[in-house]
Amino acid sequence: MSILVLADLHEGQLAGATAHVVAAAQAIGGDIDVLVAGEGVQAAADAAAKLEGVRTVRVADNAVYAHQLAEPLGALLVELAGDYTHVLASASTTGKNVLPRLAALKDVSQLSDVIGVESADTFQRSIYAGNAIATVKSDDTLKVLTVRTTAFDAVSDTGSATVETVDVVVENTQSRFVKEELAQSDRPELGGAKVVISGGRGMGNGDNFKLLNG
User: Fold this and answer.
1) Quick one: signal sequence residues (predicted)?
2) In the CATH hierarchy, which fold is given to the domain comprising 2-165?
């Protein structure tokens, strides 16, 4: 088996979520490659090469991949998917945008929000807002999965994978990047938080919610 992990990038740097997705790939078993696609992503590729268990980091460095739009990334993954039995990404905005397109283009089912691995073709996923867990089996020759990163411990950065260039450049005529507006917050993203604290009616009123910050 061979697995391709789509790296998460943040401002051109490797996001921590990637180490968790690699851990999910290790649970499946087989050779693991990481695809780093973007513009000016050599530093991210070098960081990905240090992830434990990664065999090869494949780098697609081109302006067409700069904003990780679904159309060019999906087309790139279609070109590369023939070498793999599984393609994984985090259940992030990018992963949820790109992998469904890959699954549709390859005419396979996608498994979303995977939180557990039972075997190479059987997985656990969260349903009904986390109130139930479904065990699903895929008979597709290519398994396409998005992974809940909090369900898997991150791998260490003690690896030494080889880095190779991917020369595939696709033409994107279906979409264009307009702008990006990021909300400013001094708190971690909910999906990556180690501890989540919530409050409800017991807080009495809105002013008391500040007590949760302690």
Assistant:
1) none
2) Rossmann fold (3.40.50)
